[in-house]
Amino acid sequence: MKSIRLCMLLLLSVVFITSCKKPVPPQTKYIPKNAVFVATINTKSLQAKLMKNQATIENIIRSISGSDTTINKGKQEWEDIKASGVDMDENFYVAMVNKGGGMTGGSGTAVTTVIGALKDAGKLEAYIKKKDPASEVRKEKDYSYAAIHGNNMVAWGKDVVIMMSYQKSFSASNMQYDSTTGSYNLGTSPNATNDMKAEIAFNFNLKEDQSVASIPEFRDLMQEKSDASMWVNSSASMENLPIPLPKVKELFSSSFTAANVNFEDGKITMSSKSYYSAAFRDILKKYSGSTADLTLVENYPSDNINAFGIFSFNPELINELVKYLEVGGMVDSYLTKMMGSNYTLKEALKAIKGDFAVVVSDMATKTAADSMRGMGAGTLPDLKLIVNIPVGDKVQMSRLMDKLVEMQMLVKTNNQYRLTPTMQQIGYQVIVDDKNLFIASDENVLNQYKAKSKKANLNKAVMSDFKNKSGVAYVNIESILKGVNTSGNAQANAVLPKARETFKDMEMYTENFNGKFVEGHGELRFKNEKENSLTSLLSFIETASKNIKRGPAMVDNDNVQIDTVFAPGTGRRIEEGGDVQIDTATELAPSNATPAKRK
Fold it and tell me: Which of 108-112, 286-290, 407-411 has the lowest mean pLDDT?
């Protein structure tokens, strides 16, 4: 009797557990658990929003391809896709898996897959043959597959289709020289087709605990309705990094970010949840921070603020993380050696309060003439800047600053520390007093900021959204675009007006850790508040794509090759393989610049 009761209890337990398990779309069961990124595209919802705003799927095809083909060709492409046997009313999933290499090697490979639902396998085979007549369909036990267009493969089973791309990470070590054409090709694995076959076979035979569908946080994400979603697996990314500290991977295990994206009228919104390992959660609970101090931006002396960011954290959090990683002794030893007496990271962190603010204003890009006079590509645009880091323990801050004085990096006057006269020549100012550590673009803007003589012109609705948040950021895209100078750049001159009439601003913020995860929110706002943001975005992409295509082409995806170079301002040809010489006597005139040929 006891055995029967025990069996019944076990049976009821199994039924209860399985009934409570949240269902996931069947296509996600073909995505490996170690995928570093997964995007979900709700095609049905997006199609409805596009049609509502009188936009068409043909625009998407033309925008993505950057093609100048006629609308009729775009319609035909869309009709072909609809007749391909793929279910366009079901979600699509884009997944990326990193295979080794990490951040250091050229041996790493990115495997990108697009997974969709399949209605008719026969129609899909016909579609593949139409687009790539040279492809050959091969049969396996539970699926069929065909290699198409080089390092790509399509495989399909009873109700799923998987499109896979296999690309080695770019590095000098996998650039291959083709002596026949005299060009360099982006490295591809000679066994790419066999590797993809293995990957396809692995995906089709995934066990439940090997797929992303087995992760509870991912299952939660799949329950939420949205136009699109994103899944970032930080722990999987860490696995590929050659980090000599084993505790790092332990600390970031089970670390995920799940986000929903929606295209609303006049704005794109994103809501996210960031999850952490049990060890990291314990540290966050113990050393939770306060909220961002919005007063740090309120007295900035400009009506043209381009961007600002403010966040708050508990400095002891850093010390606890260092201790967990078991490198605290090494850090303290270094600080003691630097300071010349016993000194620890815990003492150093007391110097700051844990608040941080940066404000940028009056941004303006340099003209083409400025760039030709020695302020070339890679230089910062003209702007005003303030960084404010409030002081915590002024004794500890003075202790650190006195060391920098000893190292002849700062000078001390009364109770203030400043850069040495030589270092001040870089243009930026650093001033530390009893209350704040300031970094400023110039002394005038800093003095006005410290005097609180003017109130900043801030968006009240945005500042209301930012109340009681741990970290906030705002970008006034509209004001930045006004400061862009495109003199001499025909492509930018064509795209900039469209950008100015499209984009308005962007805001982002995060909450404090709530015991389970950290919530985040972001909004990208558009000028046209009555039009769906997807329509506005595609309209801009279409304009940009057309102009990029019309511009001079320098790089081919398959063959990276520089054919012809001209000396600045002279039109004189420098032969391939020769030394590149700069004619400094003649200033380059943009209207006379001759583009490189593309073979």
Answer: 108-112
Question: Angle CA(187)–CA(193)–CA(199) in degrees, nearest 5?
Answer: 105
pLDDT given at position 504: 97
Tokens 């000194």 found at: 343
Q: Which residues of 8-30 are buried (b: 16+ CB within 10 A; e: fewer)?
A: eeeeeeeeeeeeeeeebeebbbb
Confidence at residue 21, expressed as pLDDT on a 0 to 100 scale = 56
Name the packing angle between helices 71-82 and 121-131 (round to 10°): 140
DSSP E strand stretches across 44-120: 92-99, 109-117
In DSSP terms, 109 is beta-bridged to: 99, 168
**Spatial separation of the C-alpha atoms in residues 425 and 32, rounded to whole Å:** 54
pLDDT digits (tens, 9 = 90+) for 29-41: 999 999 999 999 9
In this structure, the number of other CB atoms found within 10 A of the CB of residue 307 comes to 19
What is d(CA 162, CA 206) in angstroms, rounded to the nearest whole number?
Answer: 14
Q: Fill in the DSSP letter of residue 391.
A: B
User: For residues 53 and 263, what is the distance between their CA atoms, to the nearest angstrom?
Assistant: 12
Round to whole Å and give the CA distance between 111 and 113. 7
Amino acid identity, residue 517?
A: F
Cβ-Cβ contacts under 8 Å for 555 (sequence gap 6 or more): none
* Rounded Cα gap, residues 386 and 495, in angstroms: 31
From CA 355, how far away is CA 311, in angstroms rounded? Answer: 6
**Do the Cβ atoms of 66 and 114 come closer than 8 Å?**
no
Percentage of the chain surpassing pLDDT 90? 54
Residue 92 backbone dihedrals phi, psi, to 5 degrees? -110, 150
Rounded Cα distance, 372 and 587, in Å: 7
Q: 10 Å Cβ neighbour count for 378?
A: 6
Q: What is the reported pLDDT for 365?
A: 72
pLDDT at 106: 44
Residue 512's contacts (CB-CB under 8 Å, 6 or more residues apart) are 288, 289, 291, 470, 518
- Listed in sequence order, the residues at least 6 apart from 313 whose beta carbon sits closer than 8 Å to its beta carbon are 289, 354, 470
Taking the C-alpha atoms of residue 362 and residue 301, their distance in angstroms, rounded to an integer, is 11
Please state, rounded to an integer, the average pLDDT across all residues of the chain: 81
Alpha carbons 343 and 347: distance in angstroms, whole number: 7
pLDDT, average across residues 454-471: 93
Q: Which two tokens stand for residue 362?
A: 């009056």
Sign of CA dihedral 17, 18, 20, 23: positive
The answer to whether the CB of 418 falls within 8 A of the CB of 431 is: yes
Does the pTM surpass 0.85? The reply is no
Q: What is the pLDDT, as a whole number, of residue 485?
A: 78
Of 31, 36, 82, nearest in space to 56 by CA: 82
Read out DSSP for 226-272?
-SEEEEEEHHHHHHTS--S-HHHHHHTTT-EEEEEEEEEBTEEEEEE
Site of tokens 């109700």: 159
What is the pLDDT at residue 17? 36
CA angle 344, 350, 355 (to 5 degrees): 135
Q: How many CB atoms lie within 10 A of CB 123?
A: 15
The Cα 121–Cα 93 span in angstroms is 19
Q: 308 is written with which tokens?
A: 């600002």
H-only helix segments in 310-425: 316-324, 328-339, 345-349, 368-372, 394-406, 421-424
